[in-house]
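Need residues for this backbone.
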């Protein structure tokens, strides 16, 4: 289906269900107005619009996945949040709209989780009037299936005009088979990183970074090894405001905010993943940093607040949906 047809279909739906009969006659919406639409939720950071886009949700069996936590403690913490195992995890990607760039932070899971599980990012982009061809940059927090999976469809690039940014240690690690033997990290992670990144590498559309580097105007990438060897944060600063895209520093709000030492099977280096989480949660709370997280409940944008002991709370951004805000 062409992007144009998609856009027409979405416009028709919007007309049928959401708009007043005279909506077409109204003046164009000024640039500063945020209109919330299904599939997307926008916040403004300085003059830059950041839109959380849902790729869908997937169930997670925490008894199997979490490490350093007893099943009875997991169940107690879930019950406290009116949840039970398995829990539903959001998959969020984030669109950054700024002059000259339409940048996506992560791409969801694409086809990798099978029909009905994730893979809704392109649909969510369409609700914003954006086609994959419009995307100029993809900022990968890391190369796991639910972040890089949406880069390709049937082995082809979905974002033909995009440059993909990824931490150099991520490419170095996953493209060297010796690392699988050395670490015992699951083979599937290596296969997925290569499957999703190779078409962009072949097209010379990958840029890697190390340490801390400004990759786009006002966007700085920093590598935080732990969850994966090249896991990265992207920090956007504009007009004295900022937001940090934190990747998989957290998967399960109900458990890992009160107990940041709890890790998950997906963490390549369990100890390091926990220590990054503890240090960065402390920093986010102290600096009142706005963060955007792929697996916190959609839209996954909010603040980390210090609670009792070593624990933290999650404070989502205040839902806002009116003109001029
Ligand atoms: Zn991950």
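Answer:
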């Amino acid at each position: 289906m062409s992007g144009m047809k998609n856009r027409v279909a979405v416009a028709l739906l919007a007309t049928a269900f959401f708009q007043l009969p005279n909506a077409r006659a109204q003046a164009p919406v000024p640039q500063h107005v945020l209109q919330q639409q299904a599939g997307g939720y926008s916040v403004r950071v300085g003059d830059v619009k950041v839109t959380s886009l849902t790729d869908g949700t997937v169930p997670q069996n925490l008894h199997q996945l979490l490490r350093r936590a007893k099943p009875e403690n997991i169940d107690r913490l879930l019950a406290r949040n009116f949840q039970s195992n398995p829990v539903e995890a959001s998959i969020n990607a984030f669109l950054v709209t700024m002059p000259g760039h339409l940048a996506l932070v992560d791409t969801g899971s694409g086809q990798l989780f099978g029909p009905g599980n994730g893979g809704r990012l392109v649909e969510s982009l369409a609700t914003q009037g954006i086609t994959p061809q419009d995307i100029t940059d993809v900022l990968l927090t890391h190369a796991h299936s639910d972040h890089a999976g949406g880069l390709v469809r049937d082995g082809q690039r979905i974002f033909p005009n995009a440059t993909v940014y990824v931490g150099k240690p991520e490419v170095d690690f996953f493209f060297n088979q010796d690392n699988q033997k050395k670490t015992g990290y699951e083979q599937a992670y290596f296969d997925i990183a290569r499957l999703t990144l190779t078409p962009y590498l072949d097209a010379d559309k990958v840029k890697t970074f190390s340490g801390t580097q400004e990759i786009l105007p006002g966007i700085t990438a920093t590598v935080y090894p732990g969850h994966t060897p090249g896991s990265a944060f992207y920090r956007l600063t504009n007009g004295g405001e900022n937001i940090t895209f934190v990747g998989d520093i957290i998967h399960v709000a109900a458990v890992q905010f009160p107990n940041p030492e709890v890790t998950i099977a997906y963490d390549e280096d369990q100890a390091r993943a926990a220590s990054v989480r503890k240090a960065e949660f402390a920093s986010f709370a102290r600096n009142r940093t706005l963060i955007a997280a792929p697996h916190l409940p959609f839209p996954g944008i909010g603040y980390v607040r210090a609670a009792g002991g070593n624990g933290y709370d999650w404070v989502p951004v205040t839902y806002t949906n009116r003109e001029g805000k």
